[in-house]
């Protein structure tokens, strides 16, 4: 997979992130996370993709961002050195990004696949308040050379709320593209929450940032910068060695004629700004830094980006947990309703066969028959007692029936629980709806196919286990001979004891009846014990087999169900699995070129 085409990797990662972003946008509480995912996807499409494609010749990009009416368009004019961007007293006037570039610079960079995502390039100039997913490229007419060189300066819409799904993504696309971000905040709103969060995000994403505070009274400049440093900058993630420090500049409230003449009357404010941007927009290093930081951000915050799926994963875990818990109830029901009442009569036959086997064959048969006759009174008496003591066995419901009933109860429980939790997370609703739309039938089909193969193997297994009770002995004549000999000795001892106790008198007859029966009873006890052991072993085997061959695979099937059939959860799982992997691959592809 390492040899994968970078373009494929870029579009795979971008589409996975886009899918996650879309998934977040459906949940109002995750608007900010959706913004982060958009920024990540835009870093991949606008920065990493062109770099891997060999886009070294593309110009540097400077994006001017900030809250509504902060003075972004005014700052753009300072940067390009002419009042070209429409500054407007109506806050939130600029609604789509506009790129300003020198008259004869190439704009071929905008043709890169996936560049600026869903934003369409306008062919004709349009007013800055056109509220659509578009961007425009305007060439500067002026002949005065810009000290910044061939940089592209972007005027952007504001980001006063993350939930402005319509135009915040337009801003994020350009912010991701930028090699330098100029963050503008006006004196009365420099502390606003959302723009500040946005600034944090940009710094964490490794962007080189210049802060410009605007519109304060001249005398207030120092105080406001200080306050901004304390309130906003100090809370930013600390700059590490690889990240440039963030300078903070101030442009006080200027008269309109100064605004209209950035290179003349406003030059005293423009020059420090240009200088700071020039330091960060060094053509030799800036692009590699942008790419390197983008990849670094993607690698280190990949996990955090995927955190947006935390609730979905928790809901999936809860579903799996429920399936497993109810599976145990299924097993338990099989045990109590079937196994505990099931006698496995084949083992009674096996016991009788085993007793029979211990009797002497051939010439000894007459002796065995004699003893059999001697035991008749005892046997008769015992069967009378047994009949009186044992209650008739309850009719045991067949195994298949018990399994069917337990399965139906299992499904009913899952369905009831899914309906009960339907409002807590979309996954439960998905399952609840599924139960009304084919899940019950599909689960039934799955269950019956598991049941069929289980039943085939199960019948054979019981038969084989019952046969094994005697088969082992039949194959070992020596052991059988020893056991038969033992039984013969026991019978002879019983007879001997009878003579010893009764002498040659009539009570001996009674003693013989008694002792021979007692001896047989002892043998029968051992045989019974042995066969019972076998019977309970098969019981254990049965529950293990049902669990392994029926309820286990069934539970797996059910647990997986929400993430199959092209559902959102299937895509979610796929995206979660792929994203870290794809980022790592892109990093490996980019690293040698970044170090070159
Ligand atoms: N007089 C004066 N007006 C200023 C100054 N800076 C900005 N403005 C005015 O404030 C208004 C907003 O400035 P813009 O540059 O349009 O602000 P923006 O951030 O681009 O605003 P949106 O695009 O609407 O979000 C405009 O009418 C500017 O002319 C200044 O220093 N002096
Ligand atoms: Mg504007």
Uncertain runs: none
End-to-end C-alpha gap: 23 Å
Q: What overall form do the CA principal axes indicate? A: rod-shaped
Portion in beta strands:
5-15%
Provide the spatial order of strands within the biggest beta sheet: 3-4-2-5-1-6-7-8
Radius of gyration: 43 Å
- Total number of helices: 19
The small molecules bound here are: guanosine-5'-triphosphate, magnesium ion
- Oligomer state of the chains in this structure: single chain
Helix content: 55-70%
- Average per-residue pLDDT, rounded, comes to 88
Question: What is the tally of beta strands?
Answer: 8
Question: What is this entry, summarized?
Answer:
The protein has 596 residues and is α/β, with parallel strands linked by helices. 61% of the residues lie in helices and 7% in strands.
List the helices and strands and how they pair.
Blueprint lengths: L5 H20 L5 H22 L8 E6 L5 H9 L17 E4 L18 E2 L12 E6 L12 E4 L12 H10 L2 E7 L6 H12 L3 E7 L6 H11 L16 E4 L4 H4 L7 H14 L5 H21 L3 H28 L8 H13 L5 H11 L1 H14 L9 H22 L5 H11 L2 H36 L2 H26 L4 H54 L7 H28 L1
Parallel strand pairs: 1-5, 1-6, 2-4, 3-4, 6-7, 7-8
Antiparallel strand pairs: 2-5
Helix pairs in contact: 1-2, 1-19, 2-4, 2-9, 9-19, 10-14, 10-18, 11-16, 11-18, 14-15, 14-16, 16-18, 17-18
Bound molecules: guanosine-5'-triphosphate and magnesium ion.
Overall description:
Helices cover 61% and strands 7% of the residues. The protein has 19 helices and 8 strands. Helix 1 (6-25) runs antiparallel to helix 2 and helix 14 (399-420) packs across helix 15 (426-436). The radius of gyration is 43 Å and the shape is rod-shaped. The mean pLDDT is 88. Bound molecules: guanosine-5'-triphosphate and magnesium ion. Guanosine-5'-triphosphate is lined by residues 66, 68-74, 87-89, 91-94, 158, 214-215, 253-254, 256, 259.
């Amino acid at each position: 997979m390492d040899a994968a085409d970078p373009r494929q990797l870029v579009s795979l990662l971008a589409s996975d992130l886009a899918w996650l972003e879309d998934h977040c946008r459906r949940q109002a509480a995750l608007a900010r996370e959706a913004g982060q995912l958009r920024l990540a996807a835009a870093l991949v499409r606008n920065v990493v993709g062109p770099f891997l494609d060999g886009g070294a010749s593309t110009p540097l990009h400077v994006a001017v961002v900030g809250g509504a009416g902060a003075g972004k368009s005014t700052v753009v004019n300072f940067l390009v050195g002419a009042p070209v961007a429409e500054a407007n007293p109506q806050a939130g006037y600029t609604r789509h990004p506009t790129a300003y570039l020198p008259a004869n610079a190439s704009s071929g960079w905008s043709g890169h696949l996936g560049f600026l995502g869903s934003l369409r390039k306008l062919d004709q100039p349009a007013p800055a308040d056109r509220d659509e997913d578009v961007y425009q490229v305007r060439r500067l007419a002026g002949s005065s050379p810009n000290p910044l060189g061939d940089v592209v300066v972007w005027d952007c819409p504001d980001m006063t709320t993350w939930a402005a799904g319509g135009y915040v993504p337009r801003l994020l696309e350009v912010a991701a593209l930028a090699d330098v971000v100029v963050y503008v905040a006006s004196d009365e709103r420099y502390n606003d929450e959302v723009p500040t969060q946005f600034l944090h995000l940009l710094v964490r994403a490794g962007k080189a940032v210049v802060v410009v505070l605007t519109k304060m009274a001249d005398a207030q400049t120092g105080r406001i910068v200080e306050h901004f440093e304390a309130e906003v900058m100090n809370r930013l993630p600390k700059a590490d060695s690889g990240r440039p420090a963030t300078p903070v500049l101030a442009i006080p409230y200027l008269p309109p004629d100064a605004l209209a003449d950035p290179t003349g009357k406003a030059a005293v404010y423009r020059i420090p700004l240009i200088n700071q941007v020039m330091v960060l927009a060094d053509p030799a290093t800036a692009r590699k830094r942008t790419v390197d930081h983008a990849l670094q951000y993607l690698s280190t915050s990949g996990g955090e980006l995927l955190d947006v799926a935390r609730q979905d994963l928790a809901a999936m875990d809860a579903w799996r947990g429920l399936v497993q818990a109810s599976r145990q109830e299924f097993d338990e029901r099989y045990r109590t309703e079937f196994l505990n009442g099931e006698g496995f009569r084949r083992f009674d036959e096996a016991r009788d066969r085993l007793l029979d086997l211990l009797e002497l064959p051939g010439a000894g048969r007459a002796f065995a028959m004699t003893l059999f006759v001697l035991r008749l009174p005892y046997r008769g008496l015992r069967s009378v007692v047994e009949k009186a003591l044992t209650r008739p066995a309850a009719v045991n419901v067949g195994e298949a029936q018990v399994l069917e009933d337990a399965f139906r109860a299992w499904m009913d429980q899952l369905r009831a629980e899914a309906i009960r939790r339907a409002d807590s997370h979309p996954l439960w609703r998905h399952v609840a709806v599924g139960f009304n739309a084919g899940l019950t039938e599909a689960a039934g089909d799955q269950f019956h196919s598991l049941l069929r193969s289980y039943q085939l193997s199960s019948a054979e297994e019981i038969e084989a286990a019952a046969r094994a009770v005697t088969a082992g002995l039949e194959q070992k004549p020596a052991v059988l001979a020893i056991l038969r000999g033992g039984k013969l000795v026991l019978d002879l001892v019983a007879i001997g004891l009878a003579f010893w106790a009764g002498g040659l008198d009539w009570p001996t007859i009674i003693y013989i009846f008694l002792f021979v029966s007692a001896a047989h009873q002892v043998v029968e006890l051992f045989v019974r014990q042995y066969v019972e052991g076998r019977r309970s072993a098969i019981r254990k085997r049965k529950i293990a087999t049902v669990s392994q061959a029926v309820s286990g695979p069934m539970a797996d099937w059910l647990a997986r169900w929400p993430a199959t059939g092209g559902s959102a959860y299937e895509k979610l799982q796929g995206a979660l699995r792929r994203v870290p992997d794809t980022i790592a691959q892109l990093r490996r592809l980019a690293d040698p070129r970044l170090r070159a």
